[in-house]
Amino acid sequence: MENFITKYGDEINGVFVGSNPQAFGAIDAIKAAGLEGDIKVITSSLFSDGYEYLKNDGKFYYGGALSSPPEMAKLVYETVINLSEGKEEQTEKNINITKLSAENVNEIEKPDWKNWP
Fold first, then answer.
1. Which of 1, 90, 94, 100 could be 26's S-S partner, Cβ–Cβ 3.0 to 4.6 Å?
2. Using an 8 Å Cβ cutoff, are 42 and 15 in contact?
3. Is the CB of residue 27 less than 8 Å from the CB of residue 56?
């Protein structure tokens, strides 16, 4: 992000990243460049720590897809068990993804990723 800011500066309106650590790094670079409020960060995988950051400081972290690693792991586990038992499985499966933003973060309860069935 530092390199992009150096090269493109105030031409950047937003950045799309793949995960919370990338978002946090981009936010650090944006802050260091004094571009607070000028560049929004959006992620494709917003996990627990991203949820908290968004809830407390939505001016940098604009939002993303609220992902649940336990739900993903459970889906993989169930698929592997079914395949090992010779059952047919779909080639594509979907999980619920919630669009989370600074505007709706207070309306959506933070998932409890530590206690799942």
1. 1
2. yes
3. no
pLDDT digits (tens, 9 = 90+) for 6-49: 999 889 999 999 888 898 899 999 999 999 888 988 888 777 77
Residue 81 DSSP label? H
Task: Scan for tokens 């494709």, then name that residue.
Answer: 44
Cα–Cα distances in angstroms (integers) from residue 53 to residues 60, 63, 74, in the given order:
9, 10, 26
Task: Tell me which residue has tokens 């940098």.
Answer: 60
Rounded distance, CA 62 to CA 52, Å? 12
User: For the whole model, what pTM was predicted?
Assistant: 0.69
> How many CA atoms within 13 Å lie on the side-chain side of 83?
9
Q: Please, are residues 97 and 108 in contact by the beta-carbon 8 Å criterion?
A: no
Torsion angle defined by CA atoms of residues 111, 113, 43 and 107, in that order, rounded to the nearest 10 degrees: 10
